[in-house]
Amino acid sequence: MPKLGSSLIAGGILWTGGFAAYNNTVPKNIQAALEREGIPFIDSISDTNEKNRAYKAVYIDNKSNIKEDIAAIKQDTEDAAYSEIDTWCNQQLNAPYSWSTLEKNREKIINYCSDQRPKTVEGRLKRITEGIWIRDQEQDKEEAYKVIFAIYRYDDDFLRQINSVKGNGNDYDHSEDANTGYERLQKWCEEKLSSKVSLVEDENLYNYVFWWCKKLDHGATVRDKIKHDYPGWNEENKDWTKVKGYWQMTRQVYVWIDENSKRSINGSNINKDKYKTWCENTLKAKIYDSQIYQWKYLIAKSVCVEVKVQAVLGKYKNLKEAIANKDNTD
User: Fold this and answer.
1) By C-alpha distance, which of 147, 204, 192, 144 is closest to 165?
2) What superkingdom does the record give (predicted)?
């Protein structure tokens, strides 16, 4: 009898040990099973914003078929659908492990829940930062593209990139009117956002898309851009006699203030109110209007700034420094 008892006890010890070994071998859930294969998951990302962007990138890369694969996805935008993907992934990953369950959904779980390299340029950029592409704006899309085209058309990289989608058209140069040129920029942005990461040969493409396919952080007028480029910039609104005095001998300025003065040796005969009218009209003009950017913009930022800044421009030779020292009379 003692021998039998000892055998039972020994058997119990052995069985308990075997159960522990079994527990240590069999994954507790689907996520643990796949992580053993070296597959990382978005759910493991600690930063909430980063995690949300990752799920949004998943939606962007799979929006054409994700609703067919996952019935729980009902929304039509990344900002609305990402939480549904998150919920679905949590349910799948936390499900108790069984080989049949894993094999049934393996492909979907890896595709939609794993922390993998995004498939598209847009998806990769979404992993880095939030933001709305001009393509997805509800209004003023054309104007946003026009502003970017007007400013960047002087950049050789910009022209080379957008000319790559010219089709049968001619190459654009810096003289191309933004009111027509913006359409090529729009086409370029739409093509590049959806292009495959695996086909990207130049890593600079991600910077280009980020710079040229999002609305700039200033408005469309000359005033908007000047105030953005030169913090603290305020326009003059009364002392136009002094303004005229500062610029009447500068031909590059007075011939724009009054086109009838092109044959004059100076601008002394131009009425001071011409400066007022010119500044008012130029500052409210769109940056993409004809002849505005760059030349009229460059003139307006100095000729239309408050007089006490103009008074020290000659001393500092730099508008930002002049603005910073406008109250320094030494």
Assistant:
1) 192
2) Bacteria
Domain membership of residue 229 as a residue range? 222-324
Three-class SS of 216-244: CCCCCEHHHHHHHHCCCCCECCCCHHHHH
Integer Cα distance of 79 and 52 in angstroms? 9
**Domain-located, residue 89:** yes
Asked whether the predicted pLDDT for residue 120 surpasses 80, the reply is yes
Helix axes 222-229, 272-284, angle to 10 degrees: 90
pLDDT level of residue 12 (50, 70, 90 thresholds): very low
Helix (H) or strand (E) run with residue 174 in it: none
Q: Which of 156, 187, 212 corresponds to the end of one domain?
A: 212
From 173, 192, 212, the end of a domain falls on 212
CA dist 8 to 13, 16, 17, 18, 209, Å?
9, 12, 14, 15, 72
Question: Identity (one letter) of the amino acid at 275?
Answer: Y
Q: Assess whether pLDDT exceeds 60 at residue 233.
A: yes
The pLDDT of residue 182: 98
Q: 200: which 2 tokens?
A: 């990207």
CA max distance for the chain: 128
Give pTM, 2 decimals: 0.81
Instruction: Specify whether 145 is located in the same domain as 69.
Output: no
Give the tens place of pLDDT for each residue, 166-198. Answer: 999 999 999 999 999 999 999 999 999 999 999
Looking at residues 307-325, what average pLDDT do you find?
93
Instruction: Give the CA distances from residue 57 to residues 112, 116, 123, 155, 199, in Å, rounded to whole numbers and listed in that order.
Output: 10, 10, 4, 30, 18
